[in-house]
Amino acid sequence: xxxxxxxxxxxxxxxxxxxxxxxxxxxxxxxxxxxxxxxxxxxxxxxxxxxxxxxxxxxxxxxxxxxxxxxxxxxxxxxxxxxxxxxxxxxxxxxxxxxxxxxxxxxxxxxxxxxxxxxxxxxxxxxxxxxxxxxxxxxxxxxxxxxxxxxxxxxxxxxxxxxxxxxxxxxxxxxxxxxxxxxxxxxxxxxxxxxxxxxxxxxxxxxxxxxxxxxxxxxxxxxxxxxxxxxxxxxxxxxxxxxxxxxxxxxxxxxxxxxxxxxxxxxxxxxxxxxxxxxxxxxxxxxxxxxxxxxxxxxxxxxxxxxxxxxxxxxxxxxxxxxxxxx
Length: 327
Ligand code: IPE
Ligand code: IPE
Ligand code: MG
Ligand code: MG
Ligand code: MG
Fold this sequence. Notes:
Layout: H1 7-19, H2 28-39, H3 45-57, H4 65-85, E1 90-91, E2 94-95, H5 97-100, H6 103-119, H7 126-154, H8 161-186, H9 191-218, H10 221-224, H11 230-233, H12 239-247, H13 250-261, H14 267-280, H15 283-304, H16 309-323
Antiparallel strand pairs: 1-2
One 3-methylbut-3-enyl trihydrogen diphosphate binds near residues 78, 143, 171, 172 and 212.
């Protein structure tokens, strides 16, 4: 250690450490699902951000990988419960835990994952443990708040763009922002540097969820690894649906509402019809523009930060790649 690591070196180390995590053998229905979801590789975004943020200000140490893995475990916990709430059958090209096993298994293995996640922070030196865990707890509760708004909005007729943005700030953006900020704290950054990184993370996080909403409608299972159209079927108030309602004529509004409530047509027919409205109204282009704008804001914040130049460049190219993501 001591040297700076590039993103692919970090990913390899993160994945190796996840594979080597030691779980008790029994009860197998508690731990096996946790192992399963962690083994189905995701992008490992949050530990990458945490580790890059540390080395932006100081040297990486072996010990930093433990809370980094904690963040990934926590992320996977949110996904386990999110998939029950969203009735999602596939994630990372594999059956979700409540499908492969059942809902009770998913609830309890999710709880266990959450506890195992927070345990990883105990390895931090005492001086930084308290500020890091304080930030972590704030973020974790905000995710719950965002997830509740997401649920509340499913049954609401109208949701404004600003309500939507606040909901995704809470359910998604604060995690990216806090991962960066926790890294900055662990790397002994100044309060100002911590805050700048947090603001960058919020903007990248908003862009990231907007992309996720876009891909939920416009990607396909083979690439995305999640079943597209799930948001449409669940009447999620995504940026796409909200804007479709504001941009449509009275006639189209009625058509769209009726379509979302229609139980006579097949899910595939419903998804195709809603997507047609989206493209007719150029909602796809509008969403792409919003994504670009938030990335631009994120880069402005990132560029302001005074840290090791090579790491800053690595973070910039990481987010440039994220901007192009299709899965
Ligand atoms: C999925 O997160 C949940 C969202 C916030 C959209 P990721 O897209 O980071 O999921 P993985 O970990 O790469 O699968
Ligand atoms: C998920 O948002 C946010 C959290 C898991 C907290 P989504 O519900 O859109 O994420 P995916 O699409 O299932 O990954
Ligand atoms: Mg969800
Ligand atoms: Mg979901
Ligand atoms: Mg989604």
